[in-house]
Write a structure and sequence with these properties.
Strand content: 15-25%
Oligomer: single chain
Number of strands: 10
Bound molecules: 5'-O-[(R)-(carboxyoxy)(hydroxy)phosphoryl]adenosine, zinc ion
Distance between the termini: 46 Å
Largest sheet: 5 strands, mixed
Order of helices and strands: EEEHHEHEHEEEHHHHEHEH
Structural class: alpha/beta
Amino acid sequence: MTVPDKETLILAIETSCDETAAAVVADGRTIKSSVVASQVDLHERFGGVVPEIASRAHVEKILPVVQEAMEQAGVTPAQIDAVAVANQPGLTIALMVGVTAAKTLAWAWQKPLIAVNHIHAHFQSAMLQQQGDDIRLPAVALVVSGGHTSLYDAQSTLDLRLLGKTIDDAAGEAFDKVAAILNLPYPGGPSIEKAARSGNPKAIAFPRTLLDKDSLDFSFSGLKTAVLYHCQGQDMKGQNRTATMTEQEIADIAASFQAAVVDVLVEKTRRAVAKVRARTILIGGGVAANTALRTAMQNFADSGKLNLMIAPKRLCTDNAAMVASLAWYKYTAGQFAPLSLEPKATS
Ligand code: KG4
Ligand code: ZN
């Protein structure tokens, strides 16, 4: 009888935006704990994330969140094999809190430190809790979040090549801004999705900006402006009419906007799949929680006999389990970071 190798336990920390998160994951797959302290209530009245407030809240929450993750996982520091942190991209003063905490723990516990790219980690959400074979490569990986909308050619988990990205707003940002125009609560994605359920996605023909014929870049600011024009009149001189609109009108705008975003995301993914002859599509990021997007992507994948991997909804938005999962691949490859690690705003 062979004795199974001891599982590798990684403690990961995530503070790139407005969630303070820590998780313990075994062998990059099995979540032992995943604690997320959301700051949504703190940023709600500003309609977006305020970096200074986010940073202060991270400072307050980081140690209790790490402690809870360790307790829920039932592990001691001695059992942890490495400490990982998302050190880029994100709000520098928010990332700084997680990076400092991770460096301190790695130093105090004498464990290796692993630096993880937050965007790349989003794809790991789709791999978590999966049993069996690794993904069929090559894959196209799409991240759709509040800060990023990017397509990658995934040659392997650690080898992601950027194919295209947004030239203005990210998809999630467009959801948040359109929700603000429609006076729907923050964060906008879930509010738009909820309103859209009773709306007609064909009610208003909002533009689908596809840029050049072969372009894999995205642009959502024209769509956002089209919604604004629709609500305020073409000359933008009128009042924002949303306060006097019926619920049905709001629902129709939400559904039509959502349909336009989904169409663009599917079309760009289709182009990327054709370009790299992908067999798998990986999708991560907060907007991947959107049911209309999930359904459209599933239909597209089925039509091309492609393997679609989207994270379970609860793992689409920011969490530290995805960071621990990607860190495990780096651990296995011996890719460690020095204690001089710094946060980086860009990717
Ligand atoms: O990945 P995430 O938690 O943070 C970033 O890394 O940016 O994504 C947050 C974004 C927000 O813009 C939010 O409105 C959007 O994801 N989002 C959604 C949904 N749930 C969250 N967008 C559309 N539909 C949803 N159900
Ligand atoms: Zn994110």
